[in-house]
Inverse folding.
């Protein structure tokens, strides 16, 4: 009996079939099937019922599965213990970012970590704030750069990178351009430009409107705040953007009041802790890298 056979067996069960298991394992499907048949011959019992479209555990397979998982976990634990002892990091980590993460120098962050720990595979996913928050909570992501309002999402620890007021950005020919502030209720009469649903700023706007009994009229949606600002500068509506996004020569930023809106961009990781030494090292690396960004942003 080989660890490879146990790994193939567990992967077939987890992935719900031989084809998906082979893709995840990066091996040919016949190789997965052959190893499973050999394991079954050694044990003297079929582990999977292959008569349906999806293989299902037999009684023997159900008995073997938790023991196979335990054996694989024990081997990984032994490898991790040795790695920690020698200071060698291996494994994989996954980070998620917002579409408009360019100013945060994520490429430098990833490159620096890769150079320090070449044995760790790092993956990057771009998505909206809601999807990233779920990914961190459920364990698909070790770390994410998210946006949120006044409350930290449940189940997460965060390190704030930027905290900004959200403003109504308009072109200089807009009636609001001569004002310093505007009540949120007054914006219900205007064509608004905002992130799509699920984005951090959009969630803040939607929640504030719901609390105030306001029905916003969103006419343009884009995932990049810079595009929102461009549309507003051309007179196509009122963009809801961070105050820094309205600091342009062709825009005028108007404070939103009653209520005031603000949002945070932050690094987020599971409050219960990361899954291993590689993930812990990556979280600490990212926190240190973006502490420097936060300091530079505060001084600018």
């Amino acid at each position: 009996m080989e660890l490879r056979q146990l790994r193939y067996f567990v992967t077939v069960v987890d992935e719900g079939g031989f084809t998906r298991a082979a893709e995840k394992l990066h091996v040919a499907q016949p190789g997965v099937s052959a190893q499973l048949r050999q394991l079954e011959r050694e044990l003297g019992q079929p582990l999977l019922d292959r008569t349906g479209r999806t293989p299902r555990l037999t009684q023997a397979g159900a008995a073997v599965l938790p023991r196979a998982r335990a054996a694989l976990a024990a081997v990984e634990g032994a490898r991790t213990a040795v790695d920690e002892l020698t200071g060698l990091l291996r494994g994989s980590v996954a980070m998620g970012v917002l579409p408009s993460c360019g100013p945060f120098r994520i490429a430098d962050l990833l490159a620096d970590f890769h150079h320090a720990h070449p044995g760790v595979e790092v993956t990057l996913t771009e998505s909206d704030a809601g999807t990233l928050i779920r990914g961190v909570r459920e364990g698909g992501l070790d770390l994410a750069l998210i946006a949120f309002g006044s409350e930290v999402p449940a189940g997460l620890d965060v390190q704030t990178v930027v905290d900004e007021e959200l403003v109504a950005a308009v072109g200089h020919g807009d009636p609001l351009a001569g004002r310093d502030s505007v009540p949120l209720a007054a914006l219900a009469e205007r064509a608004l430009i905002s992130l799509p649903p699920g984005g951090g700023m959009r969630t803040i706007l939607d929640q504030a409107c719901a609390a105030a009994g306001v029905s916003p009229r969103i006419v343009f949606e884009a995932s990049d705040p810079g595009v929102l600002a461009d549309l507003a500068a051309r007179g196509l509506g009122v963009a809801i953007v961070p105050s820094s996004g309205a600091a342009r020569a062709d825009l005028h930023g108007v404070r939103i009041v009653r209520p005031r809106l603000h949002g945070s961009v932050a690094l987020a990781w599971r409050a219960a802790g990361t899954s291993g030494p590689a993930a812990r090292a990556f979280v600490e690396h990212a926190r240190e890298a973006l502490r420097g960004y936060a300091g530079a942003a505060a001084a600018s």
